[in-house]
Each structure stands twice: as structure tokens, then as C-alpha cells.
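FIELD: query
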Amino acid sequence: MIEDYKNILKSTLRVDDKLNWEALKEKNEYEDIEKSPKFDNILNELNVPKENRILEFFFKSKKEARLKKVDEAKTLFETRLKEYEKRKEEFLAKQKEQNELIDQFKTDFELGHGDAIEKYVYMVLERSTYPEGLERDYEVQYEPISGTIIISFELPSQESVPKVIQYKYVASRKAIDRVEMKKKEFEIYYENVLYQICLRTIHEVFESVYINAVKSVVFNGWISGVDPKTGNDFRSCIMSCQASREEFEALNLERVDPKECFRNLKGISAGPLAHLAPVRPILDIKKEDSRFVESRDVLAGLNAETNLATMDWEDFEHLVRELFARVFSKDGAEVKVTQASRDGGVDAIAFDPDPIRGGKFVIQAKRYNNVVPVSAVRDLYGTLMAEGATKGILVTTSYFGNDSREFAKDKPITLIDGSNLVYMFQEFGYNVTIQLQR
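FIELD: result
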């Protein structure tokens, strides 16, 4: 196990880290899951007697009884076949939908959509095989302006890294003693493991991301534990390193000394890593969007007389957020509302954690009484691209014209008009009305 930990970097150099798009697809044949019903099997199940012409010639009732059983078997066979075909059709439809999502994911990634790049890198790191016992956790964020991937990586603690070099049987005590590395030797070894994790992660990003959108990687290594001096929990960044694609791909990782390579890349650490001294990350993940504000509970005040077309525009935006919070909640997604700006920006953002179907969804709410202009749909598409989002959703109390629907066609945009909005509220048990004011 110690040898595996000492070769964390080299072990990945023989692996192609790119995602295999076709391997992600569901290609199972339904027949491998469930066999089609067979008429002969049903004949046996119902104990239908075999035809005996001589006996049935003399005893007509025998033939009638057999034919009646055969008819029962045919009816049961047809019923089971229909049920089988329905299950098969549902399976194939779901399989097709899943594979289309993967195709769309690939397209979005290759077009450089930020959310798709983040999901891709996360999946690459998730598939990376580390030595047994090395638990990993990480966050990934893409910064589109500079083309930088930022990775916050939870490093293994000293207690979780193997350090036993020998088990010695002591005959006098009839016991087995553990022989561990000496403290200084272990600190050097532990430090080497962490430097290798840093270099390995950067390597896996650059090797797997075959598009030009990622120009640099920032690796921030974090440690969590209990401070023995105070007994309090702590979480500190103890190493931070940024590397450009050009300088990193010029390295011969088979032959580098991990610590010296880290230093050559201008990596930051404060003394020996085993001392867990904190440093400031070169570039940290932004977990909060300053536009987000605390949501209000508008949904509870709805009744059958509520006219969405005349309610306060800010209340309408909060109401739409509440609605979509319920829509997305079954998939573990989170919906946040942004500051009221009335500038055509984002009214709400949904974060769906699913690595294939999910992503970042931008939602705009338009409390209109007339047809929605096509410019509103164009603005949403521009916002979607600027945010690096997976999909845009435009919700209105009114309706969309043909020019808006034509523009949204073949784009990751969903248009929800007033009638569909009322239906969505009804699905969650809320009766509302929309009476447009002309």
C-alpha cells in the first residue's frame, strides 16, 4: 500500500483520462434484461394437454377442453406480450433520452459552455483510480474569462495515509507488533504524497480536456481535522498551485521530483506540508453569487382569485422561484433568486447536481400582459451564454409569438406561457388565474 501511495503520480501517466463519450451511453439490449414471453412456456404453465387425435376423435369433450385451454393460453400470451412490449418501449425511450443527453453534454462541452466543462472535469476526477483507502472530495469551478479551472481538493489526513512498514511477531508475548515509519521519514513521505496528488490532478485536467477553453488550472489543497492545541475543528488550505497548459505539458512527469516540480510551478506552501500551515489560495472557488438575495414566501398567499398578470412584479419573480424550487427539488437541485434589477438579467438560478442531466439553469420571469417580444428571448440566450449555463427558461403570464418560438427552436431554451404556467401551479395544488389587462 505504501508503494501504491508513493506512485500516485506515475500510475496515472499510463491512463488515458479523456471521457469516452460512447462508453457513457446506455447500450444494453432489453432482451438481456427481460426475455420475450414464449407461447410454449405459457402452454406448459397452464398445463395445456398435447393434442391426441385418436383420443379426441372418440371423446369430443377432450378436444373441447384442450381448445378452451389453448384459447386461455393465447389470451394470456397476448396480454403478457403487450405488457412486455410496453416495458421494452419505455426502456428504449429512456435509453434514447439518456443517450441524447450525453450527446448534448458532448456538444455543450466542445462548444466551451462553462457548466459542461465543470461537469466534464468533475467526472474525469471521479473516474480517477487512487490507492485503496484514499478518500477524495473536491469542488470544480470554471472561470471563463481567463479559461481557468479551479479545483478545491480535500487532501488525506496524516492518520489516513498508510505508515506501517512491518508486522513483527514477538514470541515472548505471542503478539504481533506494528512497526511504523519514523516521524521524520513519514513527514517526507506524506509531503511527497500531497505533491503528487496536486500534480496528478492538474495532469488529468489538461490531458482530458481536449478543447482550447481551458488554458490553466489552479489546485488548492485543503486539510480538515481537529487542532490538538485547542480541540476545535479546523479547515485550512495548505498548498496552492497554478499552471498554464503550455508550461505543464512541457514537463516530463515520469522523471520529476514532485516537490521540486511544485516549487518550479511557483506553488505556494508554508514550510513542510506535514505541519499543516495555512496559505492563501492563489484563486479560490466562488461559492456565493453576490446577486443572490433571500427569497420570500409568496406561494403561501396564493388563492383562486390571485391574478398573476397584475401582481407586483418583484413578488412574481419570487413566486416563480418558489414554483421552480418545487419542480427541481425531486432531483436534489437548489433554486436561488437574484436581486431585483429589472434590467433583463437573471431572475433565478437553479443548480442541479446530476452529472448528466443537471447543470446551471437560468430562469427569467416576465409579468407581461401582451405578447412577449422576441428581443426578450434573444436577451435570455445571451444571458445563458454569458453565465455558462446549461439551459434557459423564460416564464411569462402572457404568450409568445411565432418569431420567439422560431428563435428558441434548436436552442437550450424553454418557453413557458401563461396557460402552461397555470397548469404547473395546479400540478402542485395551487389554483391561480391569469387575466391579461389589455
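FIELD: remark
The first helix runs from residue 2 to 6.
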